[in-house]
Every structure is written in structure tokens, then in C-alpha cells.
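Progress report, Aim 2. The chain analyzed during this reporting quarter is listed below.
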Amino acid sequence: MYDIKLVRRAKLYSDAMAQGINPLNGDYVNEHDSLSQEKIQNCMVFISQILDSVISSGGSVKKNKSVFSITPEQKARIELSDEPVGVNELARRINAVVDSNSMRTVSGTKIASWMVKNGYLDLVTIDDNKTIKTVNEKSSAFGILERDKVNLDTGDTYKQPVYNKAAQQYIVGHIEEINR
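Predicted C-alpha cells for the chain:
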């Protein structure tokens, strides 16, 4: 989120420079000044248009990313671990092989929610209506285990589902379905 006041000032300066005007004193620049060059002025017009869109969106810039997609070659490059890993680490490894600048990425939350929906994890309500994901018989047979994890903010210990290599491979094999 950008400071709208600052963005508006930047737009005023860009508009002035696009017309060959020094924005600090309002004077036209001389013909030897870089601001008198047509390419520079065209660039300032372009910048001004971008700043217009930032102003009209209330100060935010949201890049439209394409839907998630992954090729078989990219799937083959995903680092799978013999050591069980948490869902966020698995998501990070998946996202490492795709172009996350131009498309949406996979989140650990999305993967875990899909696992709950398909019966591989249970959703349990605990204190203060907080929900956690826990393993069940199906998940244990599938390759999802639990390990103790410590919340660094509170020092509390909790159980974290972790995924062995077979479970990681299964998730990678269904990642397009998971990330719809």
C-alpha cells in the first residue's frame, strides 16, 4: 500500500516533466536538458499513467497473475525428502520450480485444506474455537505423521502433521487439482 499523498505528488512531477517543465520551479527546461528529450517525456507520460492506476486503486498495486500451472519437467525438479516435512515446506519446494512472479503459487494452507477435504487429515476445534489439523488412521497409513513443534512466540508445544516421501509424491502428483 502506497501513501496516496506521495503518489499524487509523484504524478504531478511526472506530468510536469512529460511536458518539459522542471517540477521544482515550474520553468520550461532548455533544449539541452534531458527533460526536453522526446523519449524521456514519453517515459514520463507512461510513469504518470501507472501512477494514475495506483491512485485510482487507493494506493495498492495488484499484479494479475495467471493460474497455477506446472509441467512434468518442473514436477520432476521438486525436491522431495526422505525426511518428513511440513506442508509449508512442501509448498515452498513446489513454488521453487515454477515462475512465481507471473502465476499464483501453492500455499501450505491450500494443500492442508485439500487433505482435510479428502479425509487425509481431521480438523479439530480446540481452545477458543481455534481449529487445528490432526492425523487420523487414513493419514497414518498414507504417510502423514505427527511431530512435536514449538511455537516460538508462546513456547507452547503442539503436534504438526508432516509428510513422508510417499505423501509428498502423492501431493505433487495432484498439485493442479489441489491448487484450483
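The chain is about 45% helix and 15% strand. The radius of gyration is 26 Å. These observations will guide the mutagenesis work planned for the next reporting period.
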